[in-house]
């Protein structure tokens, strides 16, 4: 497939690995922030190709995984309303809440529909005028502009049965929180490709400057990841701390202005709770007041009893790079993709799912 | 969240309804069609006329058949949604699916039964279309449908039509094909591209916002198996990777034969468009269903001639050697990725498309 196969070339991969091997004096922890990177690394078997001195840590860049238990419970409460149709990306359906999951509620008769784009959610709203559609907007800076755009459509078309449950999060504050916690040593970040298409490379400058951690924005093909690792090692070796773009075929230092404006028009920054990381200041997006008519939380006020994560589930530690899935007591023994206990085993971008599937 | 599919959406066209809409005044299946009375008889007679063969024409309670030798016997039910899809329909699928199950133990498929559970109100015209399709598929595969049944259930009791087929085939002496029989050193041959059926179904479904030109690969494999057995009876294992895809079939054989399997991703043929849809939606073609492909485990010394006859067959022209059976990592499948990495290829876990066959 054009523009894909070129980035999976074996001969080039071998050449990059050889170049990486030359940095054998550096013992480094590199974190791939994004869940899609984690998946590529596992699916393509990249870990096995790298020398032992390069340790890859998976970060908090899986949107479903970092959604707080309280938010999960709220979506489950929303689904129980007979007049509500929940529209959501597939991974959310199976994430276990404190007492139930959307999948279980669907079994009890709730109307939960898996969609592939916000426009499908809009279509459901148009086709079901007598019912109320709640779109679970879970994601990072990749999905937020699209959802902002669809909300503007809703406003223009005067659709009055469409609501957003916004659990949107921002990546750079989470990276900062990880560095502040000093729980793990991170010598370099592979920054997410698609998030960076929106926010640009300048958004990470403070990480490189304030925390002296080199950043490389990588694409999602195996050669992109290998090249990003090489670029990070080169920075470390040369004692530089910069934000470099490997994924330059899609990422611009300024990012996508139009997408940024869309986000700004609809959302405002807020403090938000992350699974595993706690509440991070200015790390979430909530709807601006002028869009509060579309805010599912304000409209439905879902009440949850005390939300509780499974105390044995190590998703939190896994998301911070503190533990590997194999160090969780539930992993593979009772927590499996068929019967997941934590979101990292559910999501197609979850670290536990990657370990389970390809490990 | 990988939003690649958002970006690519511009390249796909909006879906048009695959299923032909018939007029309201056309004849429909009534509960009386299943009551055993006059309408039932009319219906059965119309089937008999179409399938035209001796054991069926007798209209006894059972078809009476003569055999000599080792028999293979299999059954499968078909509930595919939608009932028409690019490259086939539920009728074709019901015949080919069972024919292929017989072929995968090296049997020559001879006779099929066909039983339909039909929802009240289903169009008679559509029923006829499906019966015609079954008839064509049976002729193409050289099998006879010798017994059958129809039941009608009230509206909502079933979704349009469900079909069960069972099949009987004869196994020649000297043929011993089983998923327990893969041996260390065996070469693994795949008969063609993977993922076509699953992606065709996926794109035919109205709830997906795209359409492709991918067609289901629903086709009979008894011919190609016959060709293989003519040049070598030493085939150890055969599988048609339906639900769960190639990955699941390989895992089943690794586990049941107690061997390790190594395959090369590069060698596995996948249609460009199937690759594209998979990239967009985050599917792996290795887990997508097929309805007309087989994977064969054969001794190395017979591999070349088997590959040769397979490639001469219309259903095997893209055949490839994709891997080897090894003594390492028993019960597991390891894939060498395009870039040269290695990873475990597990059975299908988590999400699977429901009602794919």
Which features characterize this protein?
heterodimer, A: 359 residues, alpha/beta, Rossmann fold, six-stranded mixed sheet, 16 helices, globular, B: 357 residues, alpha+beta, 60s Ribosomal Protein L30, Chain: A, Phosphoribosyl-aminoimidazole Synthetase, Chain A, domain 2, 2 domains, seven-stranded mixed sheet, four-stranded mixed sheet, 31% helix, 22% strand
Describe the structure.
- The complex is a heterodimer of chains A (359) and B (357).
- The relative contact order of chain A is 0.17.
- In chain A, helix 7 (144-157) packs across helix 12 (257-266).
- Chain A contains 16 helices and eleven strands.
- Chain A is globular and about 65 Å long.
- In chain A, strands 4-3-5-6-11-10 form a six-stranded mixed sheet, with helices on both faces. In chain A, strands 2-1-7-8-9 form a five-stranded parallel sheet.
- In chain A, a hairpin with a 3-residue loop joins strand 10 and strand 11.
- Chain A has one domain: Rossmann fold.
- The longest helix of chain A is centred in the middle third of the chain and has 16 residues, at 222-237.
- With 359 residues, chain A is α/β, with parallel strands linked by helices.
- Residues 1-25 of chain B have low confidence and may be disordered.
- The relative contact order of chain B is 0.17.
- With 357 residues, chain B is of the alpha+beta class.
- Chain B folds into two domains: 31-171, 2-Layer Sandwich (60s Ribosomal Protein L30, Chain: A), CATH 3.30.1330.10; 187-337, Phosphoribosyl-aminoimidazole Synthetase, Chain A, domain 2.
- Chain B has helices spanning 4-8, 38-51, 54-57, 90-103, 124-141, 196-204, 222-231, 245-257, 272-281, 300-312, and strands spanning 70-78, 84-85, 88-89, 107-119, 144-153, 161-171, 187-190, 237-239, 260-264, 295-298, 320-326, 333-336, 342-345.
- The chains are: A alpha/beta (359), B alpha+beta (357).
- At the A-B interface, helix 1, helix 2, helix 11 and helix 16 of A face helix 1, helix 9 and strand 13 of B.
